[in-house]
Every structure is written in C-alpha cells, then in structure tokens.
Amino acid sequence: MSTLVGMQLNGRYRLDAQIGSGGMSTVYRAFDSVLERRVAVKLMHREIAADTDQLERFRREARAVAQLSHPHIVGVIDAGEEDGRPYIVFEYVEGETLKDRIRRMGPLPVDEAIAYAIEISRALEAAHARHIVHRDVKPQNVLIDEEGSAKVTDFGIARSLDEEGLTADGRVLGTTDYVSPEQALGHDVNGQSDLYSLGVVLFEMLTGDVPFHGENQVAVAMKHVREDLPDVQMRRPEVSAGLAAILDRMTDKHLEHRYPDAQTLEVDLEDALAAEAARSGRSTGEATAVIATLPESAKRRLPLRMRRRFPLFAVIAALLLVSAALAVLVIGGLERTERGTGQGKVKAPPGTKVVSVKRTSAQDFDPLGDDDEHADEARLAVDKDPGTSWTTESYSGATLAGKQGVGLYVDAAPGVAATAMLIETPKPGWQVKIHVAPDGNAPDGAPGVDKDWREVGGGKVKRKRQRFKLRTSGKAYRYYLVWITKLPAGAERVEITDVSLFRNSGS
Predict the structure, then answer these.
(1) Strand (E) or helix (H) holding 263
(2) What is the pLDDT of residues 159-194, one digit of tens each?
(3) Per-residue pLDDT tens for 54-98?
(4) DSSP element (H, E) containing 100
(5) Strands of 264-306, DSSP E
(6) How confident is the model at residue 448, as a pLDDT?
C-alpha cells in the first residue's frame, strides 16, 4: 500500500508521517490546521473499508472511545471520511509504547511496574464503567508520554457489552501473548478478560518477557488455556509474595477466582505499591507520581517522609523544630525578610529565571463560596516539594457545584513581569485561567466580576508539568491567580503540587 504522507483529510488534517500500521488501518502523525496542533490519525485501508463488518468495527471504535474521557486513555478528537475511507483523529502522545520501554530497559523497577499496572487498571475501570471491554490489552497498546504517564490506546476490537457482537463464534481476537483463556476458546468475554491480559502485561514488566512461547500463535493461546503462568518470584526474586499473589489472582484461569473488577484489583495494587515503597524506602520513575495519588488507607504503609500528609505527632514535632529555628534566628539578631522559595528542582528555560517568592505567598481563593478552599494547605503549592500539594475541596461534577471557579493566588511582592507559569499536578485534564493584579491588596472578587483581575493566560492542563505563557507585556504584577474553571473528567477535585513563575534573565 502506498503512503499517503502529505495528504490533507477534509482540508484540515495534514498527514505528516506514518507511525504505525495494522491489518485494518494505518496510523499517521498529522497536523490539525484549524487548531494548530499535532494529532494522530488512524485511516482505514481502502480494501478493508469495502467490508461491511470491518467498517462497522472501525466505526464502533470511534463511538466507544469517544465515550471515554480519562487521563490514562488516549482520547478521540474527531472522526470522518475522506474519499470513502473512514478515519479517526486521536490526541497525539509524544513518547514510546510500554513494549518499547520494556525492550529498551528490560525488567522494570518493581514499583514502576506496579505504578503502570495501577494506571492501566484505572483506565480499564473507566472503560468497564461504560460497559466497554478493550479485549486487546498489551504493552503495544499502552503509550508512555513525555511525563512518564501511561495511556491506553487502540480500542480497535473493543466491544460494548450492551451491543450484539459482530465476531463469529469461535473467532479469537487479540494478541495471543496476552489473551485470556476464555477469549482463546472463543467464549464471550467481560471486563475480567482485560484483567487477565493486564496480569500478563504486569508479568512482562516484572520479568522482561511474556510467560509463554510456542511454535505459533495457536500454541501460545492454548498454553494460556492449559498452563499456569511461570512463578514470577523464580524469574524475579525481589518480587514480594504479596505482589505475586495479586498476579496469580489476576491470571487465574477460573473467572470465579479472578479479580471480579478493575476497582477491586486497583485497591490491592495500591496497597502493593505502598508496601514496595515502604520496603525499599524510595520510589522510582512513574511510581513517585502514582504514590501521590494513593488513598490514605494505602499511604499509611509509606515511610513518614514519603507521605504527603503527616500525623499529628509529626506536625507537632515539626512545629517545635521550626519554633526552635526561629528562636535561634531572633537570638542571633538575624532580622531580615522571609527567605524565598528559590528555584528548587525546577529548570528554567534558556533566557529565564525562576521567580523566588515567599514561602507563605500562596493564598487560597474562593470568593464565590465560603472563602475557605483548604487555606491551611495553600503554602504547599509553592514549597518546591514534590511530595506535598494543595487541593481544592471536593465537588460533584465538572461544574464546581455551579461556581465559575476556585483557586489560589501567588503574592510575588513587590511585583514581577512574569513571562510564564509552570503548574505541576498529579492528575491533569482540568481547565485554568491565569489572572494578574497590580500592587496593593489582592482583589477580593471573582475574575469577570472584579475588574482588577486581568486574564493573561491559561487553557487545559494536559500534562503533569504544564507550562503556560503569560501575556504581561513586560509589566510587573504582584498577584498571579490560578483560577480553576473545570475539573478533570471523573474527578472531584484538583490537586496542585507546585506553581512556579518565570521572568526574563535580564529583567
């Protein structure tokens, strides 16, 4: 089949490079000329488009994934047809597949493997809640973005449990290296089949190889039906007995013994990640980000220094230490202004510097509510500590319970002409507008109501470290407001690990 690089679909999507190909379609990196951004386009082969059943499968993929909005699922942006050939437009994920990562690194660190299994499990939980079974979970269908986060893609053989299946009885769909026993036998499948496949993916992440090999795909599929997976602890001795037990339950041949759903699996994986971090005393790669999202029940397993929130006795001890340090400064006659936050581990782009602000410069902002949006945590948004964060209160629905927004502002006294803002968050997918105000008292009204706030930037927080350009035109402002207008899909709150401002080096 000849390449279509250079072609423009419906006058909008320019195909720039082929990045993948399968039996049904070819995937291209493309450019959306309307919104001026990179996208991925899956274009169906012309000869396949003539097959009514295959065409329906392709269209069903678009319908299925379009229902899903989740930070660990590659989202559908658009769909259409060009010259009788249907196509689907996805968000473009810069990075590598999980399969490529395993090939490059070999067995992954145990905590990182668990962290990716948690993220994939969360994606499957969202799909299953919509009655959509992926049916082809494998590391080739998991993308690792530039921030290290996993995103599940290619629902090409996904099927809604609410629809009649289009595949004939006995036909096996999916890659047999990861196929569940019931799928290999051509039986009807549900979400538990995806969990089996995820178990095989976890096995490969831990050992660097798939559990079964054979002369052909059918031979491998039959091993999934008849043979137990090899003992993961024999191949990777540092794997704990607890994690091995989770893997055994994920890949049990009998559905009544396998995990019943992704949510139940996720709870056990979260406990396993916390236990692994407690055992090793550290975290690596994506595990660090996932640890920050663990529920409090799992975090209790973590060493004290790895917890985001500290127990009362630790808070008291810290306060005593701070009080003692302040007393030393007073006795020593060190009367000076409060030290700034400095740069921390944030790397400034060439020609810019990180703005050092006071450690108490962040203030919560809830002018349309009760004026308290976790005020005691606001300082954690500027402390340059990746293990701490400020969160909004919990809301039902993406509309913030009818509010136009909530947020926090940074007091950059006496003022700075900031050129950019970096927002760090463990869970992207939310909307923000950035406003500024000059010297004096911070405006107490909401943006749009209080004219002292001026919008200078913002948009969707698409990744865990999202940088926004600020239109300050060289003018110094004292207050920089992070005004959250929409929550991530399926989330009740927004969490901000750190906010950093940048200015030109020469200013």
Answers:
(1) helix 262-280
(2) 554 544 333 333 444 479 999 999 999 898 899 999
(3) 777 777 777 777 878 899 999 888 888 888 788 989 999 988 999
(4) helix 98-105
(5) none
(6) 86
DSSP assignment of 338-351, as one string? Answer: PPB---TTPPPPTT
Report in angstroms the alpha-carbon separations of 458 from 2, 20, 308, 455.
Answer: 42, 33, 27, 8
The kind and range of the H/E element at 55 are helix 52-66
As a whole number, mean pLDDT of residues 412-422 equals 92
pLDDT averaged over the chain? 85
**Residue 450 DSSP symbol:** B
Q: How far is CA 483 from the centre of its chain?
A: 21
The residues spanned by each domain of the chain are 8-91, 96-297, 302-332, 342-504
**What is the model's pLDDT at position 220?**
94
CA contacts within 13 A on the Cβ side of 313: 1
CATH of domain 342-504: 2.60.120.260
Taking the model in full, what pTM does it have?
0.60
- Residue 299: the pLDDT is 82
Exactly one of 78, 136, 177, 498 is catalytic; which is it? 136
Residue 126: CA count within 13 A, CB half-sphere:
22
**Report for 41-55, 236-250, 433-447: range of highest mean pLDDT:** 236-250
Residue-level pLDDT at 339: 44
- pLDDT reported for residue 2: 55
**Does the annotation count 177 as an active-site position?**
no
- Is residue 246 within 8 A of residue 203, CB to CB? The reply is no
DSSP, collapsed to helix, strand or coil, labels residue 3 as: coil
| Encoded amino acid at 267, one letter | V
Structure tokens at 407: 């947020």
User: 């979970």: which residue's tokens?
Assistant: 137
Coil, strand or helix at 174: coil
pLDDT 10s digits, 190-212 = 999 999 999 999 999 999 999 99
CATH class of 8-91: alpha beta
CATH superfamily for domain 96-297: Transferase(Phosphotransferase) domain 1 (1.10.510.10)
Place of tokens 């968000």: 91
Pairwise CA distance, residues 408 & 392, whole Å? 9
User: What's the CA gap between 259 and 464, in Å, rounded?
Assistant: 30
Task: Output 371-376 pairs: Cβ under 8 A, ≥24 positions apart.
Answer: 373/406, 373/407, 373/408
Q: What is the dihedral of CA 120, 121, 124, 125, to 10 degrees?
A: -140
CA–CA separation, 275 and 110 (whole Å)? 11
pLDDT level of residue 283 (50, 70, 90 thresholds): confident
Measured between alpha carbons, how far apart are the two ends of the chain, in Å? 56
Q: What is the Cα gyration radius of the chain?
A: 25
- C-alpha–C-alpha distance, residues 346 and 422, integer Å: 9
